[in-house]
Specification:
Residues 161-179 have a biased composition (Polar residues). This protein is of the alpha+beta class. Helix content is 52%, strand content 16%. The chain has 2 domains: 3-173, no CATH class; 181-307. The strands form 2 sheets. It has a 6-stranded antiparallel sheet with strand order 1-2-3-4-7-8, with helices on one face. A two-stranded antiparallel ribbon has the order 5-6. 20% of the residues are buried.
Length: 308
């Protein structure tokens, strides 16, 4: 942190700053909705970082999910990100976040691409829009690390391993390396099996549903590389985020509330299983299409050789 940043964090200076430079300190933001808002963007960025043929510049990517809308603009000198609560969002605090950073090969600061803009516009209870800065807010720190990782991927540079990061950066600057396909599959299966072992004692029927879910996931991961970015994202989100959160919340309920929500929980687990079955069936169809194509291709190729 340079002298300018230290000065801007002094309590007597903050009231003198323009609104877009004042740090976000609203305690109402420390909730699950904001965490979900950030998590979905981090997943989006991770998906882009893992693409093997990601366009290097002048490209815009968009994603909308659960009432959140995201836009990532990649340019030669900058990365620009927008995250917005749409009208469909269940969040009680409607917000828009704009982040712009220089690419690290253009201008750096503390080892990252220099941040040009990191403002949030939000409304609470229909009141006037407030403008603040998220640069130092704890909930958004991991997001800047994801942006840095995307920048590394765009530049074709290797992402440092965890051990290298531990030696060269502070804990706040740690960057998770982009896992390869085998690591992604291993992480998915490990997470699903952990959920099963952790919550199988809740109920025999719940345990049966979770066991079936693990089996269906194993079918999906047999040809994981055939899934597109969105399909991989949905799998990761379900297994590593939605499922454990659902089970953890259910476990925390009182006995009467558990009884009240029991059948809804089973219905949700059934829906997840149906999704995985459909995904596995689609992969099976893809494998058959590929097999039929190869059979036809080789038949034409070698019949032609016989004639010659």
């Amino acid at each position: 942190m340079n002298w300018r940043e230290r000065l801007l964090e002094q309590s007597w200076v903050i009231p003198l700053l323009p609104n877009y430079m004042k740090p976000l300190e609203e305690p109402s933001f420390m909730n699950e909705q904001t965490k979900e808002f950030i998590f979905e963007l981090e997943e989006f960025i991770s998906d882009l970082s893992s693409l093997s043929e990601l366009p290097r510049l002048n490209k815009t990517f968009k994603r909308s999910i659960q009432g959140f809308a995201y836009k990532i603009k990649i340019k030669e000198k900058k990365i620009h990100i927008e995250m917005i609560d749409t009208n469909k969002s269940s969040s009680t605090i409607k917000k828009r976040v704009y982040i712009t950073t220089y690419r690290q090969n253009v201008k750096t600061e503390n080892g990252f691409g220099k941040i040009i803009d990191s403002t949030i516009y939000y409304q609470m209870g229909g009141k006037t829009t407030t403008v603040r800065n998220i640069r130092r807010h704890p909930l958004f720190q991991s997001l800047f690390h994801h942006i840095h990782r995307l920048d590394l991927s765009l530049s074709g540079e290797p992402v440092p391993s965890e051990s290298q990061l531990a030696e060269s950066t502070s804990p706040e600057q740690s960057i998770t390396p982009s896992p390869d396909v085998q690591d992604q599959v291993k992480a998915l299966l490990s997470s699903a099996e952990h959920s099963y072992s952790q919550y199988q004692k809740l109920d025999h029927t719940i345990a049966k549903s979770l066991k079936q879910l693990v089996l269906e996931l194993q079918r999906c991961t047999e040809e994981y590389h055939l899934l597109n970015v969105e399909e991989k994202h949905h799998l990761k989100r379900m297994i590593q985020h939605d499922l454990p959160n659902l089970l953890k919340t259910y476990q925390s309920l009182s006995d009467s509330h558990k009884h009240e929500k029991y059948h809804e929980l089973l219905d949700t687990l059934s829906t997840m299983n149906t999704f995985l079955k459909r995904q596995a069936s689609d992969l099976q169809a893809t494998r058959m299409d590929r097999m039929n194509h190869l059979l036809k291709l080789n038949e034409l190729r070698y019949k032609q050789n016989e004639k010659s």
